[in-house]
């Protein structure tokens, strides 16, 4: 799962760079988020005529949710230890 998160963050940074330095090459704002998620493998798209249809990758989103839940639990434990240390 770290791989997907790393891809997501990497593509997000590349997209931000494009927004700042090459604004004419950036798709509409709503699509930016979807393109970043597609690059990370969290969604996929298909062109149908003039439209682009997006579909969630349920298993990868569940993997991401589970991984981020683990990170959240680790931070909760660290912050609890810090709270106990500060209150002593």
Task: Please give a structural write-up.
The chain is elongated. The chain has a two-stranded antiparallel ribbon with strand order 1-2. The protein contains 3 helices and 2 strands, in the order ααββα. Helix 1 packs antiparallel against helix 2. Strand 1 and strand 2 form a beta hairpin. With 88 residues, it is of the alpha+beta class. Helix content is 69%, strand content 14%. The N and C termini lie far apart (37 Å). The longest helix has 30 residues. It has one domain: Arc Repressor Mutant, subunit A, CATH 1.10.10.
Outline of this structure?
The protein has helices at 2-21, 29-39, 58-87; strands at 43-48, 51-56. It has 88 residues and is an alpha+beta fold.
Blueprint of the fold:
Layout (H helix, E strand, L loop, with lengths): L1 H20 L7 H11 L3 E6 L2 E6 L1 H30 L1
List keywords for this structure.
alpha+beta, Arc Repressor Mutant, subunit A, single chain, about 90 residues
Domain unit count: 1
**CATH A-level architecture:** Orthogonal Bundle
Given helix and strand content, the structural type is alpha+beta
Count the beta strands: 2
Indicate the overall shape: elongated
For the record, give the distance between the C-alpha atoms at the N and C termini, rounded to a whole number.
Answer: 37 Å
Question: What is the CATH C-level name?
Answer: Mainly Alpha
Helix content: 55-70%
Low-confidence stretches: 20-26
Order of helices and strands: HHEEH
Q: Which range does the strand content fall in?
A: 5-15%
Tell me the radius of gyration: 18 Å
Which whole number gives the mean pLDDT?
76
The main sheet comes to: 2 strands, antiparallel
Total of helices: 3
Strand order of the largest sheet: 1-2
Looking at the structure, the CATH topology is: Arc Repressor Mutant, subunit A
* Oligomerization status of the protein chains: single chain
């Amino acid at each position: 799962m770290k791989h997907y998160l790393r891809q997501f963050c990497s593509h997000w940074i590349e997209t931000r760079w494009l927004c700042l330095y090459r604004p004419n090459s950036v798709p509409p704002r709503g699509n930016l988020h979807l393109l970043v998620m597609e690059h990370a493998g969290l969604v996929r798209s298909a062109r149908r005529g003039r439209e682009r249809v997006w579909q969630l990758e349920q298993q990868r989103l569940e993997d991401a949710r589970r991984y981020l839940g683990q990170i959240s639990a680790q931070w909760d434990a660290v912050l609890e230890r810090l709270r106990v240390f500060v209150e002593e």
